[in-house]
Amino acid sequence: MGMVYVLRRVTPEQLGFLRRKPEHLEAFLFDEPREAAVEATGLLDRLVEVFNFTRRAETLGVPREEGDEIDLDKSWHLMHFLLTGSAEATGQPESFLVEDWPEIGDVEIGWGRAWAIDAAAIQRFDRALAGVDGRDFADRYDTRAMVQQDVYLAEGFEGDEGGAVEYVLEYLSILRKFVSETAARGCAAIAYLS
What we know:
The protein has one domain: Hypothetical protein yfbM fold. The protein is built from 8 helices and 5 strands. The chain has a 5-stranded antiparallel sheet with strand order 2-1-5-4-3, with helices on both faces. α5 packs across α8.
């Protein structure tokens, strides 16, 4: 258990709709995978046939695709520190993971509310990540400073800094791919801690 950082790609139109109607957020994030699993079993067809169930109309556009959602496990705060040198938001593009993004309504998702990250912020972060050399992370890793600044998980890796760097680099690769593809599509994102 812990705070896992999740990013879900959305179109600017989807994000706008969810910001105007946050009551649809949970269904958008969680129901489609559940419905797809039921659909794959053939159960939904049977429910429609026997009990006259109706299929839910798509209200938010295209169905989910592979890669539309990633999780950074618990690496997110370590990664943020290695990108920025700070545990807090800095206002710089590299500070993407902990910036003060607008909340999407008052809907609790996991460890709080979900955040709306617009397409322009995705573009800025994509450009910033292009200049990041993962090998520099080992040089930036400072257990003492991270513990002093209360970086999530820093104490857990005390004495295993090399393992921590490898862990963060694994998720940095996942994040780079997601951000690059999201930027290329002109999309935005929803972030939350689960």
